[in-house]
């Protein structure tokens, strides 16, 4: 059994907003609700789902970039959920994040070398004298030459900038990296390069990834386990192989069947999911998917489905699913 | 079948302080009546500019500088902006990627469609409003009469894209150009929009050009695919041929680096090294040569599209190296 790196229990995030011209109405966005899962050392755990499903919120809450509204995140024996900035600082080195758009996260007035030096000097990971060698090593790790240290972000292509963003996360020698849509903005031919780079670095440094993405085909190729989220809740979590071969939750099935296949002869008609994701301002009662679910029955409208292990290492939140091949009621 | 659109030797330049930079370099494309053509390529390959140039919608400083684009017997590139205005909407309809920037945020969506109908079809306002509601119904918007009174921000992304499609169809165009209409949408909504445009194409007997970077998406949509790289067409063939017999090294590389839901899951995907050239920094000869494992001395000269021996008669590729291997 592999070790647990992060143990997450009941993690929730609500955003309280004010609406109306004078902010007279209080409204609550239920961005993340009762997220429970362990992240194992050395694995790639992916979170997938449509916009507003809470996958990025999960990543932000884990790193305390959003302060969670409830729940716990145990790292190294300590609950880091909701720690203030000072208390969080020692953990920041271990827990890093790479964002979708490196252009908006790199300071345009800093050279790449300066951007990479900052975290190294802040965490005292190298002396000024050791710095040039360390920078060269970091750039080499992400497939760039030392000459890049003198360049500015605008001189780089999208793929190169994403390599720099990865190098910056690596600069602290972290154990865990959240990849928040880290390859989504890249072109296909460059996307594969960056994916392969992430996998090489994982092997080399024993990194653990939380990979947040909406492209299911990409996720299938790189993940050990995959969690599917819908409107702030986990719907299903299973080893990648099981999830793609035998999806159990009706939402997972619909999501998979909506993914276009690069095969002109593939059935052009598919299980079409009607309607759209309801607003997280006012999520449906009971199972949040019941308004679009082909299997929905009365209990789904009132009772939140339990998060259960229905097969080894395969968890589902659905009233209809009781086991690997069993359902509570017939599929229509 | 007759060609509805025939583009020959199209070149497009960006005016820069240090002289023009070429972004589209001699594109040849044709589209038959009722055909659905996919134009595939990565950012900056010129796929959108090529189509925008047809209807005179190129941004400032970017100009079509050569070639011709025959649409139903007329050269679009030679038409006055006044005449082009009549082509836009009523003969060639457009759907763009981001409806939020294409729709007027302070105008009810119904009124925006009415505006198009009044202008293009000379309809009276009440009749145009009735037609607008019909169009909203046609694109699958529930309670269309009510939604016609909504402002764009009151609609979801998928609904806004449906409104855009309704506007694109308002003039009953013979050709609909869809420029990445689903890129900003979630996958389940993307599936709905794709099905919708496909249904409408058959119902309204239009030709459709899909511009996309998503090879998987286009597989289920197009009859024929043109693969663009750095402002040139590198391969052009019926959709099944592209996927069964990709011939150009770039097409092969793209397909190989595409993760799929079917087939063996492999951790590491084959990838194409390097990045596409920037406009103005195009290498001489074949633009793909610097990234191509098969490049030889012949790649120093610009390759031309030529038929692939032993393949479908419509299969053309711009790579002398693979063509030589096949003959």
From TrEMBL, chain A:
Keyword rRNA processing part of the UniProt annotation: no
Nucleotide-binding as UniProt keyword: yes
Biased composition (Basic and acidic residues): 262-275
Membrane topology: Peripheral membrane protein
InterPro entries: AAA+_ATPase (IPR003593), ABC_transp_ATP-bind (IPR050319), ABC_transporter-like_ATP-bd (IPR003439), ABC_transporter-like_CS (IPR017871), Oligopep_ABC_C (IPR013563), P-loop_NTPase (IPR027417)
Protein family per UniProt: Belongs to the ABC transporter superfamily.
Record localization: Cell inner membrane
Keyword annotations from UniProtKB, A to Z: ATP-binding, Nucleotide-binding, Transport
GO CC terms: plasma membrane
Pfam families, per the entry: ABC_tran, oligo_HPY
Region feature (Disordered): 260-281
PANTHER family listed in its UniProt record: D,D-DIPEPTIDE TRANSPORT ATP-BINDING PROTEIN DDPF-RELATED, TRANSPORT ATP-BINDING PROTEIN
Protein name as annotated: ATP-binding cassette domain-containing protein
Record-annotated ABC transporter domain positions: 6-256
Lineage: Bacteria, Pseudomonadati, Pseudomonadota, Alphaproteobacteria, Rhodobacterales
PROSITE patterns cross-referenced by the UniProt entry: ABC_TRANSPORTER_1 (PS00211), ABC_TRANSPORTER_2 (PS50893)
Sample GO molecular function, one term: ATP hydrolysis activity
Primary location class: membrane
BP GO annotations: peptide transport; transmembrane transport
From TrEMBL, chain B:
Domain ABC transporter: 5-255
Source taxonomy: Bacteria, Pseudomonadati, Pseudomonadota, Alphaproteobacteria, Rhodobacterales
Family (UniProt): Belongs to the ABC transporter superfamily.
Location within or outside the cell: Cell inner membrane
Bilayer topology term: Peripheral membrane protein
Domain of life of the source: Bacteria
PANTHER family: DIPEPTIDE TRANSPORT ATP-BINDING PROTEIN DPPD, OLIGOPEPTIDE TRANSPORT ATP-BINDING PROTEIN APPD
Protein name per the record: ATP-binding cassette domain-containing protein
Keyword field: ATP-binding, Cell membrane, Membrane, Nucleotide-binding, Transport
One CC-aspect GO term: plasma membrane
Biological process according to GO: peptide transport; transmembrane transport
A Pfam family reported for this protein in Swiss-Prot or TrEMBL: oligo_HPY
Annotated GO MF terms: ATP binding; ATP hydrolysis activity
InterPro entries, sorted: AAA+_ATPase (IPR003593), ABC_Ni/Peptide_Import (IPR050388), ABC_transporter-like_ATP-bd (IPR003439), ABC_transporter-like_CS (IPR017871), Oligopep_ABC_C (IPR013563), P-loop_NTPase (IPR027417)
Primary localization: membrane
């Amino acid at each position: 059994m592999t070790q647990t790196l992060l143990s997450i229990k009941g993690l929730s995030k609500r955003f309280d907003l004010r609406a109306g011209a004078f902010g007279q109405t209080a409204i609550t966005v239920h961005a993340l609700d009762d997220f429970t899962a362990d992240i194992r050392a050395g694995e790639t755990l992916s979170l997938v789902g449509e916009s507003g499903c809470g996958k990025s919120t999960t990543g932000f809450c884990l790193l305390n970039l959003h302060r969670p509204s409830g729940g716990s995140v145990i790292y190294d024996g300590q609950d880091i959920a909701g720690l203030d900035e000072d208390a969080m600082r020692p953990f920041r080195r271990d827990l890093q994040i790479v964002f979708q758009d490196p252009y908006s996260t790199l300071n345009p007035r800093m050279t790449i070398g300066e951007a990479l030096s900052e975290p190294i000097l802040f965490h005292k990971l190298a002396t000024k004298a050791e710095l040039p060698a360390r920078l060269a090593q970091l750039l080499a790790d992400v497939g760039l030459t030392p000459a890049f240290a003198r360049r500015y972000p605008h001189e780089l292509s999208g793929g190169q900038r994403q390599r720099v963003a990865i190098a910056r996360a690596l600069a602290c020698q972290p154990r865990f990296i959240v990849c928040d849509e880290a390859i989504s903005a890249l072109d296909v031919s460059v996307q594969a390069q960056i994916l392969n780079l992430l996998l090489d670095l994982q092997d080399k440094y024993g990194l653990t990834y939380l990979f947040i993405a909406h492209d299911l085909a990409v996720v299938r190729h790189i993940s050990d386990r995959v969690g599917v989220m819908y409107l702030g809740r986990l719907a299903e979590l299973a080893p990648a192989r099981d999830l793609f071969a035998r999806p159990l939750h009706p939402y997972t099935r619909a999501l998979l069947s909506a993914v276009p296949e690069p095969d002109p002869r593939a059935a052009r008609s598919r299980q079409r999911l009607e309607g759209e994701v309801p607003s997280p301002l006012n999520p449906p009662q009971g199972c949040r998917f019941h308004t679009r679910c082909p299997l929905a029955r009365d209990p789904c409208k009132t009772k939140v489905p339990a998060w259960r292990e229905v097969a080894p290492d395969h968890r589902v939140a659905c009233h209809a699913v009781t086991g690997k091949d069993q359902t509570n009621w017939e599929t229509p | 079948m007759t060609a509805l659109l025939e583009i020959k030797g199209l070149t497009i330049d960006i005016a820069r302080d240090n002289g023009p930079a070429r972004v589209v370099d001699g594109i040849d494309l044709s589209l038959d009546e009722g055909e659905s053509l996919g134009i595939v390529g990565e950012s900056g390959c010129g796929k959108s500019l090529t189509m925008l140039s047809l209807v005179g919608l190129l941004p400032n400083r970017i100009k079509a500088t050569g070639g011709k684009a025959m649409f139903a017997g007329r050269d679009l590139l030679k038409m006055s902006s006044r005449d082009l205005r009549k082509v836009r909407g009523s003969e060639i309809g457009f759907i763009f990627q981001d409806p939020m920037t294409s729709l007027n945020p302070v105008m009810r969506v119904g009124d925006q469609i009415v505006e198009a109908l009044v202008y293009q079809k000379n309809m009276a306002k009440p009749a145009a409003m009735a037609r607008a509601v019909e169009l909203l119904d046609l694109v699958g918007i529930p309670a269309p009469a009510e939604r016609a009174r909504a402002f764009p921000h009151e609609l979801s992304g998928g609904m806004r894209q449906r409104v855009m499609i309704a506007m694109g169809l308002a003039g009953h165009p013979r050709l609909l150009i869809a420029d990445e209409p689903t890129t900003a949408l979630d996958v389940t909504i993307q599936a709905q929009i794709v099905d919708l445009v496909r249904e409408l194409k058959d119902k309204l007997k239009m030709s459709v050009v899909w511009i996309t970077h998503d090879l998987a998406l286009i597989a289920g949509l197009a009859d024929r695919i043109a693969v663009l790289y750095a402002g040139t067409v590198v391969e052009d063939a019926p959709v099944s041929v592209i996927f069964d017999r990709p011939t150009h090294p770039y097409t092969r590389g793209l397909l190989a680096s595409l993760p799929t839901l079917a087939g063996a899951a492999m951790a590491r995907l084959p990838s194409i090294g390097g990045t596409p050239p920037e406009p103005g920094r195009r290498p001489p000869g074949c633009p793909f040569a610097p990234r191509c494992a098969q490049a030889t001395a012949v790649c120093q000269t610009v390759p031309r599209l030529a038929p692939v021996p032993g393949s479908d008669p419509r299969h053309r590729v711009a790579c002398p190296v693979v063509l030589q291997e096949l003959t």
